[in-house]
Design goal:
Length: about 230
């Protein structure tokens, strides 16, 4: 069944509640008068909003339908409510090796990180002998979940950059570097004129949005993020 799940206007996506609020506060207006108009009569949708809504410069409000495809998902730019969930991971081909991505993510985390629990440490955790097997069980689970969520939310862009020379391990490697604002990552893989640059740029932005994370060692010689 087709239904309206949100609306787009002013270069943003909004849920029904925030769109209604924008109408009430005057950010959105009726494009046709209630009376004295010989054009087609106004209709109201399932959320009680008129079909002629527009912004104050006359640009129409566009409904988002449940039957449309939203590979990356959408959240309301006003309140953060999920409008459309990202495509499920089962939309990603079985050929994509999530475990290889996780390994690339963890290896990069170790060689690019010093022990934040030791203020005098200047060696990378990899240089100190730590491997992906030294992450705590909880840390490995959480890191895998983060990689999985990133793939699920950004598959439409990932599929544009994968090739024989750039694989799952590279995705994990760049995810760690980009989210932690290192001087390398998705953003510097290709030049701005390369056909895949927009996809790499989108992955860079998505990784940055995840926020930074650091590593430290535990009392029992394990590694975990904080």
């Amino acid at each position: 069944m087709c239904r309206i799940i949100g609306y787009t206007f002013n270069a943003a996506a909004c849920c029904a509640g925030c769109t209604a609020n924008a109408f009430e506060t005057g950010e959105l207006v009726r494009a046709r008068p209630e009376k004295g108009c010989d054009r087609k009569p106004v209709r109201y949708d399932e959320h009680g909003l008129p079909d002629d809504l527009a912004n104050t410069v006359g640009e129409p409000v566009r409904p988002m339908f449940s039957t449309d495809e939203y590979p990356d998902g959408y959240t309301c730019d006003e309140c953060g409510e999920v409008i459309a969930a990202p495509a499920p991971l089962d939309a990603v081909p079985d050929s994509f090796d999530l475990e290889t991505m996780l390994n690339g993510y963890q290896v990069c985390a170790l060689w690019s990180s010093t022990d934040m629990a030791d203020a005098d440490s200047d060696r990378s955790l990899q240089g100190a002998g730590f491997t992906p097997y030294d992450f705590t069980a909880d840390a490995s689970r959480d890191m895998r979940n983060e990689c999985e969520a990133f793939v699920r939310a950004n598959w439409a862009h990932i599929v544009q950059v994968l090739d024989d020379s750039y694989g799952e391990s590279d995705i994990g490697h760049d995810l760690w570097l980009s989210r932690n604002r290192h001087g390398a990552g998705f953003f510097d893989r290709v030049s701005g004129t390369h056909p895949a640059y927009p996809a790499f740029k989108a992955l860079q932005d998505a990784a940055r949005d995840m926020g930074e994370v650091h590593l430290c060692t535990t009392d029992d010689g394990k590694v975990e993020p904080f």
